[in-house]
Amino acid sequence: MIRPFVTVLASCVILSALSACALGGPVSTYPEYRPAPGQGQYVRPQYLYTQPTPRVPNVDACQSRLYAGLVGQHEGAIFIAGLPGRKRIIKPAQTEGFGYGAGDPLYSQTPYVEVREFLPGQTLYAPSISNLRDRLNLGPEIGDRLTLELDDEGYVQLIDCR
Prior knowledge:
Blueprint: H1 2-23, E1 86-92, E2 112-118, E3 131-134, E4 145-150, E5 156-161
């Protein structure tokens, strides 16, 4: 008599266990945990992301990086003839009086630049050897020519090889 009771009890336990598995697990009185967006998830640090390989800079044939300290200096404080190699200075030119762009509201900035080119060993007797050219006609790009670009007041803004 006990044997059929144990069999029925064992089958009830097995059926209840199987039905609990089929329903999705134990029933809890607590609400299901739902994390806020971004909470509880791994955030990869920025330094682990791949970075593009920096481009190897071109050869600095005119050693313009050597003269980077001249940025912000006035052209009168620079001994141009003492700088080695070919040199060029680009500065916005001022048109005096009449002509193209003088007092015309359409031309707020003068369309001319003053370009001075110096050759090695050139003796300078005057502060300017200049000509007026259009901004598009500054001459060819030369990789070993030191170019100093000035602002209106004559302070160095950019030093480059061109």
